[in-house]
Amino acid sequence: MNIYFRGILVINPYNNLNEKLNIWVKDGLIAYIGKEEASIEQETETVLSDDLVCSPGFFDMHVHFREPGYEYKEDIESGANSAANGGFTGVLCMPNTNPPIDNPQVVEFIRNKAKNHLVDIEVSGTLTQGRHGKAISPMFELNEYGVRMFTDDGDCVMSSDVMRRAFEYAGTKDLLISQHCEDHSLTENFSANEGVISGKLGLKGYPHIAEEIIIDRDIKLADYCGNMKYHVSHISTKGAVNIIKEAKKRGQKITCEVTPHHFVLSDEVLTNYDTRHKMNPPLRTQDDIDALIEGLVDGTIDCIATDHAPHSLHEKHVEFDKAPNGIIGLETAVGLSLNYLVKSGNLTLELLVEKMSVNPRKILKLKEINFKVGEIANITIFNPYAKWTVDKSEFKSKSKNTPFHNFELTGKPVYVINNNKIHKCQL
N or C: which end of the chain has fewer CB within 10 A? Predict the structure, then answer.
């Protein structure tokens, strides 16, 4: 690999960079970065980069690659290819596989499968054994095998006693606990956000309070146990934003993420019963969307994550209330974020880089990405001005369950570089 980006806007909060520079990447390392022209080798590919932005590689801290157990939906190979094509150089896999990631053998299986990819694949482990919500998992042992976070994602740990013990246990080694916040007693057999739309469509509702009750409970438990670290997955309501905002003001060690589909789509799109709009948490109201965007702007929400959840065609092509929850998101996240957050004037490019690269890595205690000569090149390059139409046939994911097919967007990923590999994004 030998490529030279001339006159590219470099944004790297790690190095306080936000200026036009030239960057030469050779053999996986940064060979030059600066304002002057580099003395590059003759065989170097030169890219004129007036409209391009170079940032530390984007990291998605919430993906479902389905392996082991559900490889027909997605596997590690196709998931990694999808991530690279979407502009990501790293991801964190969720543990709701079959078997679940609650023992070192499954961790090692995934790590072996993840070798030699451009995309760095990190692993989360279950919070409880078997994701049954009863006995906490062997977190210390899993952490020794490189597990970065503990969650029963897809299910909520309903027992306050189990959560208390998990916080106390994890806190002794400063481990990160995350939660899928949903009071299942309020959401059983839900299909949509509880409100005007679900009433009109005759769909079982998921009230916003079901998410907020668990967030509030866990924040209080984390505080009671000694201000333990806590990360909230895929928040979706105005109330959730407010609860987290107040907890941060009190100095609690709480972080959270939001998905593009939750800050782009409202439950108004459900009127045609398209199962590509069915997810958990469900699409909420425009008031919720406005609060989520405000939370991104003011720092309440730390990260943008996709909750990439592949399903096969036959699983989604059923009645709305019988369809599984979830959509794919890796190959639309950058475009949606640039279009609906940056183009709209809500976020600066630098803030977007913080939400999609810097903050997820900080939360997971991953290595900082520095743009200095001799450093490993871990880079996402995107064009915030490129206009394109989403075409799911171009996706590298095995699954095509996206609600964004044919969306016209401004902004897209162009290249990713990592592990001495380069991929030109094909979207």
Answer: N
Is there a contact between 196 and 141 (Cβ–Cβ < 8 Å)? no
Q: Are 21 and 132 contained in the same domain?
A: no
Looking at the fold, whether 170 and 203 belong to one and the same domain comes out as yes
Identify whether residues 201 and 345 lie together within a single domain: yes
Q: What is the pLDDT of residue 92?
A: 98
> Which residues are tagged catalytic?
307
What pLDDT score does 7 carry? 97
Say what the pTM is.
0.98
378 and 233 within one domain: no
Question: What range defines the domain where residue 320 resides?
Answer: 57-363
Q: Is the peptide bond before 68 cis (omega within 30 degrees of 0)?
A: yes
Six-digit token string for 23 = 């960057």
Q: Which of 146, 123, 119, 111 minimizes the C-alpha distance to 57?
A: 119
Q: Hey, which bits of 15-174 come out as E strands? A: 17-26, 29-34, 45-48, 53-56, 58-63, 88-93, 120-125, 149-150
CATH number of the CATH domain containing 148: 3.20.20.140
